[in-house]
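User: Sequence in, structure out. Go.
Assistant: Echoing your sequence, followed by the structure tokens.
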Amino acid sequence: MKATLSLDLEQVIDQQSFGKFHFRVAALCAVSVLLDGFDAQVMGFVAPSLAQQWHISRAALSPILSSGLLGMLLGALLFGPLADRFGRKPVLVFCTLWFGIFSLLTSRADSVQSMLVLRLITGFGLGGTMPNAIALTAEYMPKRIRATGVMIMFTGFTIGAAAGGLVAAALIPHFGWQSVFVLGGLLPCVAAVFLFGLPESLRFLVLKGGEDGRLANILHKVAPDVKVPPGTSFVAGERRERGFVVKQLFALGRAKLTLLLWVIYFMSLLDLFFLNSWLPTILHDAGLSLRQAILITTMFQVGGAVASIFLGRFIDRMTSYRVLAWAYLGASVCVFLVGAAGTSVVLGTIVVFAAGFCVIGAQTGANALTAESYPTGIRSTGTGWALGIGRIGSIVGPLVGGLLLSSELEVKRVFWVAAVPPLIAAAASFVVTPQSGKKTP
């Protein structure tokens, strides 16, 4: 009897050089994340016009702003496990189409109540897009550049969030706030068509018992030079996870990893959204002009984008949470120094850029390392639940900021408090042992 050839897909993927196929996967995932970032942040840019037209106070807008974040939290918790059951590609396409359709419907909102409900439902799709874009990118990137690939892909979110302000400024004066949601809805619907061109994860298909013919066709695109003789069987070098998928986050020694990641994400997103929400206001109140405050705050996002390249390379070389720990420690120092910059534009620009490099860079690095730390069968669930827990922090952050500012603390003392969450995230990162989550019996 002729022996059956066994081919380890993970090994084949790791041996490949970055090529057109990898670029296409990362680019399509980046587009979905970019549109996710646009829709996730656009409410903040629309809010002033909405308040003026509907004659409502800032306090009345707060539930609307929070409802989108709550929807993203629930979407991450729900669609992560669904992707580990049905596949990354169909869930990614579905979620992108979901938030596109409901963004279009949001343009028809005519009351605070209808806007609140529509933003909540839109958030479901937004929350489900991110973990699956991360997982799919990670599962096709060769190991030596995996973190860099995921982090560069994820800069799409930052670009999309920044683009929301530019688009809102251009459209609202001429076409009203509704036009922003129309554009923010049409683009994801169009993108969903192109996302059908994504391949399903090879590792996922192997673990789910996919047909060898389909696996061979996808593998030929990944590695054109690899010959696959008839009768070849495919393996992924991992066990198949069984049972309730969320429970598997705590099985086989993963409990410590999972809980520490939740602490990291909670603290990281708490600080990130606190700074995103209040930094322009705090800098303006400290004595800078509104224009200076906005321009300096922009450097926060620029720093985060730059970090994706540099931190990604360090993480790929070391594959260690220690890189993340040092980044969060740097974030704590930089946030502390923002409060000491006073009204100096030059110093403020430098420390805000550095804070963005460390805060946003560390969060993006956490996404890459989380995807690397969990096995294929629970990767979307692990990433999705970490992001979901982090979303609680993203809701708490702006609320804490509001309380601190209303207490009339000195500006520097507000930033002293804001330096604590990344310090806690750094401590958690120093003790993470991701290897425990990858063991197979």
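User: And one key feature?
Assistant: Residues 20-54 form the longest helix (35 residues).
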